[in-house]
Amino acid sequence: MPMVPFYTRFRDLAFREMRSATVRDWPGLPDGEYGFLESYCDEKGCDCRRVIINVIPANAPNKILATINYGWEEQAFYVRWMRDPELARECKGPVLDPLNPQSQYAPALLRLFETVLQDEAYVRRLARHYALFKGTGRRREAASGRKARRPRRRR
Description:
By secondary structure, this protein is α+β, with helices and mostly antiparallel strands. It has helices at 11-16, 75-82, 85-91, 106-116, 120-135, 140-144; strands spanning 3-5, 19-23, 32-41, 50-57, 66-71, 93-96.
């Protein structure tokens, strides 16, 4: 499934609502600020309800330190969707993505992300971004809060 960064469709919203965490004395991490960039599935007809999070340091925004898969739905949803309880287990909750390279800081960043997920408003925001990306990905006005203008009909 092709994963596309949220900011490619909703740039202003993505950066305005991007979650970050500043840490000091966090075990296994250098002190600093870390951003969580969202990517969503662009496959037509797919309803995976998952996000890929690329964790980047504020002082090197082009460097990905960890890639995390996160599915926010209940386990039963992923069992129905995957039709395989074993595979469904890998979809629920946060896990380091086995298909992407991970830095030495990835395990600590996963623990940091798990802490960030305790904020229910953030989890709802991820689900809202997913719905926006999947359902109205072509209408940028929705992300900016502006009303879409209807074209005038010619008579």
